[in-house]
Records
---
Amino acid sequence: MQHNTSGHGAPETAAPERDERAQTDDQSPETANADLEAARAEAKENFARYQRAMADFQNYKRRTEEERAQAGRLANLAFVLNILPVVDDLQRALDSLDEKLAGLQWVEGIRAIQRKFEGALQASGVTEIQAEGEEFDPNVHEAIGEDIGEEGKVVRVLQKGYRMGDRVVRPAMVMVGNGQGQG
């Protein structure tokens, strides 16, 4: 055993360290209650922070899901807006076909292509806006002019209108009745 003489001739010994339990045992009940209340307050504050962080995360998750869905809707909308003129042109071509050509195989092929385009539109959630014979509705119809017929009613559709869900993609271009020609 080594002894350290620090000038006094007596060996130096380390003072016994007090562990935390010994310190808490020495505390008065009031101090212990105050420490417990402080720990409870800190735990409550930490739990509140945790709840706020979870709410922030849920909001972030919802926002990113909405943004992703919006991006998908915009991509579908761009597709629809690019396809509608093709569908219109195919319909006009088929409507203006000479009756002698109506039964030919290539004409039926064009009709099949038109149906596929219309099917792609339907798969994208696009529906045609009903117009002919309906009350004129400026939310879904675009009046190009007036024509003989019941006042305020759509008497002729010049270009079909479409909606995607509740959103009007393209209003129907129509002629509205002027109230003349009714018997």
---
Amino acid sequence: MPRGRRPRSRAARLARDNAFVNVPYDRRYGAMYLAFIAGLSAFGLIPRATVEIPGSARRLDRIVGLLRRCRYSFHDLCRVGVDRRPPPTPRFNMPFELGLAVALEKGGYPHEWFVFEERPHRISKSLSDLNGTDPYIHGGRPEGVLTALANALVRIRHRPTVAQLRVIYEDLRAAIKRDLHTTNLFEARAFKELVVAARISAENRIPSLRRRR
């Protein structure tokens, strides 16, 4: 080891690889949710999300704490409509959590955030403060998420091909049918199992991920 260089702690390595996923939690978004988990795992990152936060905890403090433990965050702002369930209300959680990530980065914290959207140009109307920031457009399809992630993460060490990303995504879908005994993917236990399944598939499919262990 070169003189003066300290070994990285396990916590520091995990923080370097942690990726906060800020997406809608609803059944219509399920395939996209899987694509984010599969795609990030293929790049050697560890997906983290607010579904991990215990219900009894002060949620805002826990979200900020989780963001601080993540080197990256990925924010999908595709849900700009009004939720029709009474009372009809727009969703503010996704842009709010993006704002927390931006504040973290602007405050000098080592954090890099990425914005995703379904349609081109819509974000300039829904969140004009981000004008000058180009969102990654996924078209509302899981394949679009995988391609958008590949474009966003061009500088990261592990560089899976789009074909590898698709295979890992399909592996994750198969794992749900085989091993995950739940109808709700948006809960803590299911999320953790999805992350483990995606990591196993990624390490099986991408040799460079096996060598890092």
---
Amino acid sequence: MTSIKHIGLLTSGGDSPGMNACIRAVVRSAIGSGLKVSGVNRGYQGLIEGDFQELNARSVSNIIQRGGTILKSARSQEFLTLAGRERAYKNLSNHEIDGLVVIGGDGTFRGAEQFRKEFGIRSVGVPGTIDNDLSGTEYTLGFDTAVNTAVDAIDRIRDTAASHDRLFFVEVMGRHAGHIALHAGICSGAEAILMPETPTDIPALVNHLAIGRANGKTSNIVIVCEGDEAGGAFSIAQQVRSLAPEYDTKVTVLGHVQRGGAPSAFDRLLGTRFGVAAVEGLLDSRTDVMVGLIHGKIIYSSYSDCINEQHGPDPELLRISGITSI
């Protein structure tokens, strides 16, 4: 067993639904194990500025259902420098914090790994990103909620598309990964799903839509991942419009609405499991590892593996999307 007595807890990078559920679980699990917990406000920037607050069981009451993060989040350019990390280490030493739980994405884990190499601060990471783009877990915290939010919005757009015989291009989040697009597209019955992991052929898309039109389809929805190589929804809609001006074409960008809102039951449970596992990992002397969920079981994977191994889309879901979009 480790000698850790005081855990620092932070959220970094983009917020994701379920972070508060994880914060709650970390605090209560740590206290139950006799540890002290300090929350770090605004991620690594808070480490540098010494913006800490002691957390107890009551500090995290009534937050499991809330979106965002009560600890706030930020992307710290200063933490990328050695001088910034030295300041952070001094603050941790002054508060006698000897281990970290960091909730975030690949940048968060790179920072934690470098910090341990230079100053010996152990950490366990929790994958908090709606993009679901980290290896070492089947689901990242917030992904399920983001998909449900997108599907709800697309369902509403479908009503309008059907009422006016329109072609809608709906852009969802995902700079480098199309998991949200793929899941939301299948669940909303989209006619096509465009994402970075698959090549986008605009003439082929127009032909696909024309076949559907010939078979009696009067409205269509195309899901576009923001990181698609052919461009965002506005650009792709323009390209399609130039080839098929007969369509009444509209564009909707869902944007950051996908990040907010109350977390789904799945993300509340996932955040709770991840939070408890993170504390248990530190107590078991683990460091530079991310908590993950594979086949329903908690596992730990090294930061380097999670960051460097690409988590691509499920080939079976890609196959299914092609079958069901006719």
---
Amino acid sequence: MATIDEELAQLERDIRQLKIEYDMFFGGGRKRPPTEVEWRIEMLIKRYSERGGELKFGQRFRFNNLTQTYAKYKDVFRKRMAQREEGTIQRHFGAAAKAIEAERARSQSEVAPKESPAAEPAPSAAASASAARSFRVAFSQPESESQKVDQLFEAFVEAKKQAGEETAKLTRAGFNEFVRKKTKDLQSQKNCRDVEYVVETVDGQVKLKALVKS
């Protein structure tokens, strides 16, 4: 029997495959939409939506990201299907083939490793609205909020794994010290009580931002 992590990995592969096959369908490279792949995705999402309590924090974060990605693709497919039925969609098989090759190249590429997170000041929520995925948590005294620091660390590591970034050099102890020092520095510089950290995946790159809260 497959483990939760194995099934989440399969869900991610199926979502990627669904996009490729829909591109082929709309480009004229296949006669029917990929309903079998779509059915597998729907079944896995339904299963873990009902069994959310069995997921660890990192698994739940990954599952939520995948369901958001699938929902975004599904909305695009629905609109393109409506255009196709109305006869307004243009078929460009060559463009679809290029898109497939680009997707394969992207999935095989690796982002250069980073030794430590770089927190960036984010004075407003407008920038974070453009992120495809995000996780937020605020601290006033991170040295006594170890559970929240652990959640932030797990979200950051999971996001980097999802983006194909190196995580081997990240340690929990080093991350804890980074959050403690960064929080104290911002509290001193900005005369604030709380500092909110945001893990974002924007255009395939993971960012850790620090927001000063009044």
